[in-house]
Specification:
- The protein has 91 residues and is mostly helical.
- 58% of the residues lie in helices and 0% in strands.
- The protein has a domain of 41 residues.
- The longest helix is centred in the first third of the chain and has 23 residues.
């Protein structure tokens, strides 16, 4: 049997990844700086040093709002959402 071909979804992911890298490279080379400190509030840590479930959900709500306001790209949104979802405590 022959080798399995690359799926269309994998090709799309690779192309999107390369396009994102090219955009970042172009931004760095052009010298354009963006100050995201105003766009991204610092998460408030609870006593244990970790975010509580309510605080994590608040952060998820914030990134949804940033996506709606087009302050972040869909790829950034997905990365942040996955990170926050992974940190949610499951009882």
């Amino acid at each position: 049997m022959g080798a399995q071909r690359t799926s269309f979804e994998k090709l799309q992911r690779d192309r999107a990844k390369k396009a994102k890298q090219a955009l970042k490279r172009e931004r760095r080379q052009s010298g354009v700086t963006t100050d995201r400190s105003e766009d991204e509030p610092t998460p408030v840590l609870s006593e244990g040093g970790e975010l509580s479930a309510a605080e994590l959900l608040q952060q998820i709500e914030l990134i949804h709002k940033q996506l709606a306001d087009e302050a972040i790209t869909f790829e950034e949104f997905e990365e942040r959402k996955a990170d926050l979802m992974a940190r949610l405590p499951i009882d």
